[in-house]
Amino acid sequence: MKKFCDTYLKKLHIGNITTESNVLMAPLAGYTAYPFRMICRSLGAGLAFTEMVSANGLKYNDKATAKLLYTSEAETLKAVQLLGSVPSAFEYACKGAYTAGYDIVDINMGCPVPNVIKSGEGCALVNDLPLASRIIEACKRSGKTVTVKFRPGMNRNNIVVSEFARMCEDSGADMITVHGRTRDMMYDGEPVYEYIAAAKAAVNIPVIANGGIYSEEDAVTMMEKTGADGVMIARYGLEDPLIFARLTGRDTSETKLSLIMQLADTAQCYDELSAMEHIRKTASYFMKKLHGTKALKQKMYDCGNLEELRAILLQIFGGAQ
């Protein structure tokens, strides 16, 4: 099998920023908090994005929203994803204190969830190019590097991927990520490589391919069929973050046990309840292919403190590679 690192691995030039690899970790609501992002970066991810953060929530100083932006000096090349539909709220969020430490702002124009669509946010913006353009321009006024993640259209009868890609570039976006499924496909089915290839043909800025990558073979196929500049791993990155090391050719002795213990250590930057929530959610994804762990998983959710949780994690992952 062709190896990704031998053929497609390269640095990305995004505006005035250069990443060490073109293998990125997607923003995932509820999961890509600081401790998990640090694991992805240590394994070779060129960028790891925060989960989506409401631009409007930051405008009104919502503390729960702000909590999603925890970071430290140890996290280099910080990338935040913002969600919303009001240009002024995006501009405020990009210029405000909460995102001051972040180098890159990614705009969510691809979330297909019904409540997001009803609010005119996420993937709904592919139906409103003028508004999407004003949002990108508002973010660019902050002086930050700006990227956009979007889908090709709401359905296969309304594909706008080429014109939307050009609009992003014309509005100042420094990179785009195209999820190869339309909104009505949600997260199911094989991505349509032709849509991503069309975006790549339409612009001169970097184009990242996203959707349906669950192995190194999938990543190679994605690059071969789309001509993209890199790949973005989503849910499979949660299940097996070691894919970043495989794709970037990094030698590593890490195992799921060592990674979850690293995450447990880093998560202590939060209060105990928040730390335990993040550890449990991440460990649940790590466990997806482990058999005979149902009872231990229940114990993981029933335990009352971090010390007990660490002991249960040792039981769960002690023999897992």
Secondary structure blueprint with pairings:
Elements: H1 4-7, E1 12-14, E2 17-19, E3 23-25, H2 34-42, E4 47-54, H3 55-59, H4 63-67, E5 79-83, H5 87-95, E6 104-109, H6 114-118, H7 129-140, E7 145-150, H8 161-171, E8 175-179, H9 193-202, E9 207-210, H10 216-226, E10 230-233, H11 235-239, H12 243-248, H13 256-266, H14 272-286, H15 294-302, H16 306-317
Parallel strand pairs: 3-4, 3-10, 4-5, 5-6, 6-7, 7-8, 8-9, 9-10
Antiparallel strand pairs: 1-2
Q: Keywords for this structure?
A:
single chain; 321 residues; TIM Barrel; eight-stranded parallel barrel; 10 strands
Descriptive notes:
This protein is an alpha/beta fold. The protein has two domains: 4-248, Alpha-Beta Barrel (TIM Barrel); 256-317, no CATH class. The protein has helices spanning 4-7, 34-42, 55-59, 63-67, 87-95, 114-118, 129-140, 161-171, 193-202, 216-226, 235-239, 243-248, 256-266, 272-286, 294-302, 306-317; strands at 12-14, 17-19, 23-25, 47-54, 79-83, 104-109, 145-150, 175-179, 207-210, 230-233. The strands form two sheets. The protein has an eight-stranded parallel barrel, surrounded by six helices. A two-stranded antiparallel sheet has the order 1-2. The longest helix is centred in the C-terminal third of the chain and has 15 residues, at 272-286. The protein is globular, with a radius of gyration of 19 Å.
